[in-house]
Amino acid sequence: MNSEMENFETERLYLRPTNKEDADFILELMNTPKWMKFIGDRNVKSKEAAEAYIENKIWVQHKRLGFSNYTVIRKSDGVKMGSCGLYDREGLEGVDIGFAFLPQYEGQGYGFEASQKILALAFDRFGLKKVVAITDKRNVVSQSLLKKLGLIFAGEITLEGDDKKLFLFEKRNDISS
C-alpha cells in the first residue's frame, strides 16, 4: 500500500501519483488542443468523467503494478503543470513512458526533467527491462524529447482498434542483473 502513494521529486518538481483531487487538472489537460491532436479524445468532458478516468484507468494500473500516472507539480509555487508516467498499454511490448503538459509550461525543460526521473525509476525502482514510447508521427517535439532521454526509434506501430500509424521508440535497461 505504501508504494501506491510514493511521491518522487527532482530539482524543480514533485511527482505525485495522480488521484481524484487532480480531477479538475486532468480534465483541463486532457482537453488541450495538443492532447486532442496527438494523444486523442478520451471522452473526459466533466469533473465526474475525470474522476472516473482516474479511478478506473490510472488507479487500477497503480494498484496492479505500483506505478502509473504522476501529476507534475512545480516546487516553487505548487502549480500542477502536467503529467508523466509509465503505462501498461494493450498491444505494446514493454511499458510505455508518456508525458503531457499544459501549454503555458511547455518548452521550459519540465517535460525532460520529469521524464528523466520517471525513466530512472522504471529501471532502478520498478525493475523494468525495457521502456517504450509511442508518439504521433507529427509530434516532433515529443520525438525530440524521447531521443534526448536516450530512447531510439524502433519503427512504426498501429495499435489494435486504431488505424493511425505511430512511431515507436524504446530503451533497454543498460544495467545487467
TrEMBL record:
Protein name, UniProt field: GNAT family N-acetyltransferase
Gene Ontology molecular function: acyltransferase activity
Domain N-acetyltransferase: 13-174
Record has Translocase as a keyword: no
Acyltransferase is among the record's keywords: yes
Cited Pfam families: Acetyltransf_3 (PF13302)
Domain of life per record: Bacteria
